[in-house]
Amino acid sequence: MTTTQPVRIDVDVVIVGSGFGALAAAQKLAGTDLGVLVVSKTTEHLFQPLLYQVATGVLAPGEIAPPIRSILGRHKNIDVRLGEVIDVDADAKTVTYRWGDARTVVGYRYLVAATGASQSYFGHPEFAENTFALKTIDDALTLRDHILANFELAHALPSSAERDELLSFVVVGAGATGVELAGQIRELARRYFDSGSGGIPADDVRVVLVDGAPDVLPVYGGKLSEYTARTLRRAGVDVRTAAVVTAVDDEGVELHADGRAARIPARTVVWSAGVEASGFAGVLAAATGCAQDRAGRLLVGDDLTVGGHADVFAIGDMTSLGGLPGQSPVAMQQGRHAACIIAGKTARGTAFRYLDKGSMATIDRFHAVASVGPVKLTGVVAWMMWLAVHLLYLVGFRNRYVAVLSWFGSFVGKNRPHFHLAVPGAQVAEPAESVEVSA
Amino acid sequence: MTTTQPVRIDVDVVIVGSGFGALAAAQKLAGTDLGVLVVSKTTEHLFQPLLYQVATGVLAPGEIAPPIRSILGRHKNIDVRLGEVIDVDADAKTVTYRWGDARTVVGYRYLVAATGASQSYFGHPEFAENTFALKTIDDALTLRDHILANFELAHALPSSAERDELLSFVVVGAGATGVELAGQIRELARRYFDSGSGGIPADDVRVVLVDGAPDVLPVYGGKLSEYTARTLRRAGVDVRTAAVVTAVDDEGVELHADGRAARIPARTVVWSAGVEASGFAGVLAAATGCAQDRAGRLLVGDDLTVGGHADVFAIGDMTSLGGLPGQSPVAMQQGRHAACIIAGKTARGTAFRYLDKGSMATIDRFHAVASVGPVKLTGVVAWMMWLAVHLLYLVGFRNRYVAVLSWFGSFVGKNRPHFHLAVPGAQVAEPAESVEVSA
Questions:
Q1: In this structure, are A377 and A240 located in the same domain?
Q2: By CB atoms within 10 Å of each CB, which of A5, A110, B55, B387 scores lowest?
């Protein structure tokens, strides 16, 4: 499946990544006379804020992760390649990306790095082995299949401690992703077990949301955090704040709270508690002499350049700049800033300024919180805002009808179409419908 | 993840399978005073006729494979379990199904077997290792990812014999599935490579359709087969009939045609040329003393009973009865027939009669063939019929809005939303959006 003869391409701008920052930079450069190459490890642009809905069967991957080609394909000055960038030579001004054994060398005039961040386990790498992550489409599909497998297996068991373990879900990290996932798992349990089959009451499904901070959604705090915790508890989520995870194994987690240790038996522990810069940040740091913080984030200049190289930019979650939050609006604005400097629309060395338009998080259907400057909103009003902002973004892509329909059909409605699972190890056979006609 | 203590359930009717026949039988028994348990190896009812569209990214699995629970869940007398039936005791009137190590014993008054068929390689099991099948959702997803990987890898290669191999697709078996898949891969290539990126002309993608019969869609023959071959060739498909596959390796296939041998280099060979009864047919044959044909199909009685057991029925592609075609209408009518006998609406021993309403196959957008008794239809008229019949069936399920919309958005339109892929072995990282707020 691979080749050993390397290919060389020369472009004006190479953008590494396919997230919010990379896409914003590429779109800002669309239609200019600059030749742009986007190199990404995945074919899709992942709309991460809705990834938890893929993990719970509400949306299909394709509905929140359109192929980058289909988004950028119409711009003749932009090409897209699938590959992992493994080397940067900031003096020769080349990056090398791989697919299997195939190597491609790309000569650039400008480099924009936007590879984001991955999960952090706060110095407990062993936690990763016994927890599920929720950072990529594949993470979401793995978690989705696991949830469904536990639901189905529970039907085969009498009421027992083992069945309780199967139906217990611990979500570590009460940020937006953790809060949304906890709420959605409760929602899914209602749909699934109240659908008439199986005879397991939905309330047998236990969802525990854990965070070391005293509040859920600690970034908001105050009334919004209180409202969120209240709403989650009303939905049946067991909220444990100021609780630190001290151990995780495949049958549960150990918590430490109020000076006491507690164990929660659960076959499913989802980790969404921290981030660290992607591995490419290290490659780029070594190539440019740029410093990194404890989370591996690049300490970029005010103008987003890396290690004093005027032609190398890094943006988004792989960077640290003045304590800006690792959120998509920051990455998108940084991407446009770097693109404007490259396109000559903004003077070299111009410092990046973040325009904070506020932030919001959804809790479950019809409940969300939003913070816009001094204005704090909760409930259905905030939820409509959240819905509008997210749909508006997705509408930018050509799969909007699918996303919008599935949304109202599944998320707001009762449908969970995107579950399928086979018995592990079974030889699955399906009706042959039309094949045999040529037999 | 499993238990060793076995659970015993007793029901009036146990239905094994989740295909067209099983579902028709279950729906016929819905609302009766009979307790029905459906045991299936997969959670979904697969609408196999559109599986090729999942393999080519047009539709998401959930759009053609709704969970059986969501279809049958509203009927209080029907329960659904995920498991593989591994044993039948026709005298004790029990079936045993497994999930992992968990065993469940189900006592029944009536057993309906409907587990369908799997791929047959005509005595060349080694072909299976180097070909892709298209029988299950997982088959379709595997093929989909492989097609996309080859398309993407081709971008990393200069024009070369290796690139040609990557972009060559051989479909063995010109039945409905093979014809539809060949047409759809050409369609996909046009969308994918003419989308502006990559600079590979769509015509570099080669699709070869092979069948040992002298015609494509041999079940139709005559004008309809000629029309189909003509339409495929116009779409750029290389049609090779009366050609027998003599060898398959991971770099191509050997054909024998017109007394000459030929080799087609291709990294992708899809096998859709034959079927044999599912493994459960053997289990049931052993338990009931029922005979099987060369393809492992159960030689059931006229009344669909198995091995003379009046309380055991087998239907659909796992059976052979009077040369009926292995198509969904047969399976569905047989399922209803068995259900009517079980429910006492039809006298025991009544022979099954198949009502042939005709059959149809699609070639590509706006082209199909249909045969209804003496009437033969081709072109857009047949295609509209095909569309109507297939939508009508899907509309029976609650995910209709999703399916219908995706259909018009993707199949008829230009969108191919359901592709996503990561570089093999790469540590994929994505923007952290909302997770870090709790870090």
A1: yes
A2: A5
